Structure formats: C-alpha cells, structure tokens
Amino acid sequence: MTKILLAGFTGSMGQKAITMINETEGFELSAVYSPRANQSAADYGLADSVSVYNQLADIDSDADIWLDFTTPDSVYENTKFAIEHGFHPIIGTTGLTDDQESELIQLSKDKQLGGLIAPNFGLSAVLLMKFAKQAAEYFPDVEVIEMHHEDKKDAPSGTALSTAKMINEVRKPHEQGDSKETMPGVRGGDYNGIRIHAVRLPGYIAHEQVLFGGSGEALTIRQDSFDRSSFMQGVKVAIKNVKNLRELVVGLENLL
Ligand SMILES: NC(=O)C1=CN([C@@H]2O[C@H](COP(=O)(O)OP(=O)(O)OC[C@H]3O[C@@H](n4cnc5c(N)ncnc54)[C@H](OP(=O)(O)O)[C@@H]3O)[C@@H](O)[C@H]2O)C=CC1
Ligand SMILES: O=C(O)C1=N[C@H](C(=O)O)C[C@H](O)C1
C-alpha cells in the first residue's frame, strides 16, 4: 500500500486528487494538509483514518509520498519540509524559482530521496513541450500563449515557462521583431527573447499554444486540458514510480 499525504487538499486539484487516490487500488490517503483546514476528516468527507493538518510544523505522518497542489508562495517551504522528513515529494504546484529548484534537488541528492517536480501532469502538455523543443531547432521564431481559468494565481503558467526553457535549450538566440510598445506589456513577458502571453478567462481550464513562424509558413502546436481529470493519470504514474528515483527530477517525461 502506498500512503499519500496531500497538501492543498481543499483546492481544485486537491479535490480531484482525493477522488483519484480513493479510486486507485494500492493507494491510501493517510493525511491531508491545508492551512485553513479546521474540521475533522469526516466533515471533509474523508475516512476517519485520515489525519487533517493545518500547520506544517504539526505534521507527523508515516506517509510515503508528499503530493503538493498548493500555492507558489508555499511550495518551496513545503517541498523542503517533505524532503527533510523523508516523504517522496511529488510537486504539481508551480512557482519554484530556478535557485529554489536547484537547492531542493541538491537536498534530495544528499538524502538520496526520489521525487518529482512536474509543471504539468497532462500527457498532451508533456508532448506539446517535447514537440515544441523539436520544432524550435528548425523554427527559431516562436511565441507562447497560455490560457487559464481566472482563479490561477501565477503568470506565466509553469508549463509556459517550462516550454520556453526547453525551447531555449535548442533555439539560436536572436532578436525577434522590434516593435516599439505603445502600450506597456503588450508584447508579453520575455524569457531570453521568447515572448510569453498569459490569458485569464472564465470557462477556460488550462491550454497552451506554441506559435512558430518561418518564411511563408507557420506551425502551431496546441494542447487543451478541458477538465482537471486530465492531470490525474500523470499523478498516478508519478506516485507509482517516484520511489525508484534517487533524487528530485523535473518533468513527468522522466517517469514515462
Ligand atoms: N502540475 C500540474 O499538472 C498542475 C498544477 N497545478 C498547480 O497546482 C497548484 C494548485 O492549483 P489549484 O488546485 O487550482 O489551486 P487552488 O487555489 O484551488 O488550491 C490551493 C490549495 O492550496 C492551499 N493553500 C493556500 N495557501 C497555502 C499555504 N500557505 N500553504 C499550503 N497550502 C496552501 C489551499 O488551502 P486553503 O483552502 O486552506 O486556503 C488550497 O487547498 C497551482 O500552483 C497550479 O498551478 C494545477 C493544475 C495542474
Ligand atoms: O493552475 C493551473 O490550473 C495549472 N497550472 C499548471 C501550470 O501553471 O502550468 C499546469 C496547468 O497548466 C494547470
């Protein structure tokens, strides 16, 4: 039985994860954490055996896995806590800086503890990033548009940033258009010359387009998550395989 501690259990992803865990043979939800939790497990519709925590420092659990869908502000502290206490971290929460990520990877190596940071658990997004990196070798002129629900706390999305980083690994650096902005920010964010545009609208869940332009032609790669269930297969794969790793790795593709 794989025991799971779920951080951010009251959130949109947390609720989907609870359903997935309860429906998966061999998985057991053993603890949940959210800072504003103030009711019993039963009040949250959870089994009595599930421990409910609202303070990081109080967590005392024999869970194997720390599954995190919380907030960009808390993810670093949570992940550090998880590694220091021997939980295999599976981090879906976005917003870790490069420095924080490097520090956490080093900490996991010191402890020889496997874990995963996945900017996106959806197969369509993982493939989009892979294909975009491939295409960028031939089409260095590229812009990224990500579209999300209006409650999303961070911009750009972790997936868009990760896409830009992967493209940046192979793209020949060059200037791409020199329009003067007559409205501040209208050309979007800038990751090493790769423009990222973030759209927030009701009705949307999580979507991304990578637009490549060439001489007289264009290539557009798009993925859509129409429902948060799209992320759960990837979370399941991560929970089943993370124990085989000996350090924190970035990207679900490392476990597929
Ligand atoms: N990797 C992936 O595939 C995906 C990643 N995500 C990412 O997951 C994260 C959560 O998304 P979503 O569920 O939509 O967000 P929600 O806002 O719906 O949920 C956030 C959760 O975090 C909790 N929380 C708030 N503050 C803290 C804190 N200081 N410490 C710990 N927990 C806290 C909230 O608890 P409370 O109710 O008590 O405030 C709530 O349970 C985001 O970063 C999002 O980008 C989302 C979808 C897919
Ligand atoms: O907040 C979300 O919803 C999502 N967050 C992740 C991100 O920032 O890339 C993954 C997915 O896009 C949904």
From TrEMBL:
It catalyses: (S)-2,3,4,5-tetrahydrodipicolinate + NADP(+) + H2O = (2S,4S)-4-hydroxy-2,3,4,5-tetrahydrodipicolinate + NADPH + H(+); (S)-2,3,4,5-tetrahydrodipicolinate + NAD(+) + H2O = (2S,4S)-4-hydroxy-2,3,4,5-tetrahydrodipicolinate + NADH + H(+). NADP(+) binds at R36. The active site is at H148, K152. It is an enzyme of class 1 (oxidoreductase). Its main location: cytoplasm. One of its GO terms (molecular function) is 4-hydroxy-tetrahydrodipicolinate reductase. Keywords: Amino-acid biosynthesis, Cytoplasm, Diaminopimelate biosynthesis, Lysine biosynthesis, NAD, NADP, Oxidoreductase. NAD(+) binds at G8, F9, T10, G11, S12, M13, G92, T93, T94, A118, P119, N120, F121. Pathway: Amino-acid biosynthesis; L-lysine biosynthesis via DAP pathway; (S)-tetrahydrodipicolinate from L-aspartate: step 4/4. It comes from the Bacteria. Residues 3-121 form the Dihydrodipicolinate reductase N-terminal domain. (S)-2,3,4,5-tetrahydrodipicolinate binds at H149, G158, T159. It is found in: Cytoplasm. Catalyzes the conversion of 4-hydroxy-tetrahydrodipicolinate (HTPA) to tetrahydrodipicolinate. Belongs to the DapB family. Homotetramer. This is 4-hydroxy-tetrahydrodipicolinate reductase. It comes from Nicoliella lavandulae. The lineage of its organism: Bacteria, Bacillati, Bacillota, Bacilli, Lactobacillales.
